[in-house]
Amino acid sequence: MRPFSIRWGGADYAAEVTPSPTPVDLAFRNVAILDGSGRPAVEGDVGITGDRITAVGTVGPATVDIEGAGRTLAPGFVDVHTHDDGALIRHPDLGFKLAQGCTTLVVGNCGFSAAPARAGHPDHGGLIGLAPTWNDLDGFAAAVESAGPALNAIALVGHNTVRRLVMGNEARPPSAAELDDMRRLVAEAMAQGACGFSTGLIYEPGRYSDTAEVIALAREAAAAGGLYTSHIRNEGDHLLSAIDEAISIGREAGLPVQISHHKAAGARNWGKVGESLARIDAANAAGADITLDVYPYTAGSGPMAQYFRLDRLDPELAAVIRFASCPAFRHYEGRMAVDLAAEQGVAPVDVIRQVLTAPEGDRTICIQFIIDEADVETNLRHPLMMVGSDGIVDLAGRPHPRLFGTFPRVLGHYVREREVLGLAEAVRRMTSLPADRFGLVDRGRVVEGHLADLVLFDPATVADTATYDEPKLAPTGIEVVLVNGAVAHRPGVAPGDPGAGGARAGRFLRRATAR
Q1: Residue 223 to residue 221: CA distance in whole angstroms
Q2: Gap between the Cα atoms of 487 and 483, Å rounded
Q3: Mean pLDDT throughout 304-326?
Q4: For every residue of 328-361, which 3-state class applies, written as one string?
Q5: Is residue 18's pLDDT more than 50?
Q6: Which of 193, 150, 155 is nearest to 506 (CA)?
Q7: Which end of the chain is more exposed for a tag (fewer CB within 10 A), N or C?
Q8: Would you state the pLDDT for residue 119?
Q9: Is 90 exceeded by the pLDDT of residue 515?
Q10: Could you tell me if 431 and 75 are in contact, meaning their C-beta atoms sit under 8 angstroms apart?
Q11: How many CB atoms lie within 10 A of CB 413?
């Protein structure tokens, strides 16, 4: 395969089209176009004018030409499960997502959203990472747009966030007045453009809610045309009953359901994803509307304080814990609890207790090795399964490698090496399927008139390089990323060139308009 190159002026191509069309701003030449539909690739050119795709097939002269040399051009990838709410402001270049080919992020997952909020109050959820200067989604959107993010983002409104604003961390049902307040906050966020309502029912304070409370709040999202996404109440021993609850919430509230990071946690539960998927298929056949997402790794990650009770520490879970971010003991980062325990002559649960009871112990992010590789592949084979990174953006430590490698890992390991699914189908799951699901208008397909969120990659070399020991390594094979028609990422090209990359052309998107 020839190296791809970039040229300016487009004169070489002017004679190929009769009559000569209106020149475009940028053209990808000689690329294998995967349009996002799941259909096989077709050879051709793609032209962009402003922020839109204006020609597909044969393209005349262009101000900037990018010679693809047979590489694959696809819609930009949509990361449907992120915790990048705060990163949109703290790290607006979002290099760890651009390098994967991502162009749009869904934020506000697992019940933790940046809005609504109380300006000046700290983030008690642990996943946003900054104190808000806003009170509602409009204010958060303004803060994001002021930061100038490199990617697009659309937001869910989070149950944990709403419940904590109204009730604090109290383990009780809401009063009628409190439920009304929560409903008002969800309805307000939906009116300001949230794409749906998310829950994290294993986390505080969401775990203290009953199904009726969730249904009441989900109905506010349904009334505005949104969807319900859920980190379900249990992903281990009670996975199937938790799936049943999610199905019932969608049915009773009258809205589509997205099951977040579908898995069967813990060795004794491995294989249950087959039963879980069968229940979802049966529900869909009976009229439900349920889709899912997965990350392509055998370890999860999250705030460690949410997974352990100090009065009843779980030795089985402690044995599979690795410290990703540990402000109280920075030298623990990248280490397994079992190894630290062996060095100290104590049990792994004693190391967990030591960390959680230390100052800032509640800010510890851990990695848990709880998933079976066979289950990952079962998930990826399912036609309604999307891809979400679920990375937590604490770059001071050693984060889960999914923050840097999720999408190239699917394309390299599971498509090219394992042949779990085909390339065109994998691209569909990363583009048109999530764009349609989350209401991203005019995105997710390479067709004329759509917004030019595009990624040029080499299917023969695309791969993740991030590991648990070295999690911040950039992937290979992602050559060019466009966001809203601007070149946002091109590795190894000198800044200042017209096609060099580095543009921060991302937008905060709203449901219904979502452009």
Answers
A1: 5
A2: 7
A3: 96
A4: CCHHHCCCEHHHHHHHHCCCHHHHHHHHHCCCCH
A5: no
A6: 150
A7: N
A8: 86
A9: no
A10: yes
A11: 17
What SS3 class is residue 128? coil
Q: Read off the pLDDT of residues 82-121 as tens digits, 9 standing for 90 and up.
A: 999 999 999 999 999 999 999 999 999 999 999 999 987 7
| Tokens standing for residue 514 | 């979502």
Contacts of 300 (CB under 8 A, 6+ apart): 261, 263, 265, 367, 368, 370, 371, 390, 400
Give the containing element (helix H, strand E) for 177. helix 176-191
pLDDT at 3: 45
Q: In what order do the strands lie in the sheet with 365-369?
A: 299-303, 365-369, 321-325
pLDDT digits (tens, 9 = 90+) for 447-468: 999 999 999 999 999 999 999 9
- The one-letter amino acid at 59: V
DSSP letter for each residue of 3-71: PPEEEES-GGGGGGSSSPPPPEEEEEEEEEE--SSSPPPEEEEEEEETTEEEEEES---EEEEEE-TT-
Query: What is the Cα–Cα distance from 305 to 495, expressed in whole angstroms?
Result: 43
Strands 77-79 and 478-483: unpaired
Distance CA 104, CA 395 (A): 20
**DSSP class of 485:** T
Is the per-residue pLDDT at 224 higher than 50? yes
**pTM > 0.90: yes or no:** yes
Please name which of 100, 155, 92 lies closest in space to residue 464, comparing C-alpha atoms: 100
What structural domains and CATH numbers belong to the chain? 5-75+443-489 (2.30.40.10), 77-437 (3.20.20.140)
Phi, psi of 338 (to 5 degrees): -65, -35
| List of residues 6+ apart from 514 with CB closer than 8 A | 154, 195, 438, 439, 440, 441, 443
Which residues touch 334 (CB under 8 Å, ≥6 apart)?
Answer: 322, 323, 324, 397, 398, 468, 469
**Which range is least confidently modeled, 122-131, 417-426, 443-452?**
122-131
Helix (H, G, I), strand (E, B) or coil at 172: coil
Question: Per residue, what are the HEC states of 393-410?
Answer: CCCCCCCCCHHHHHHHHH
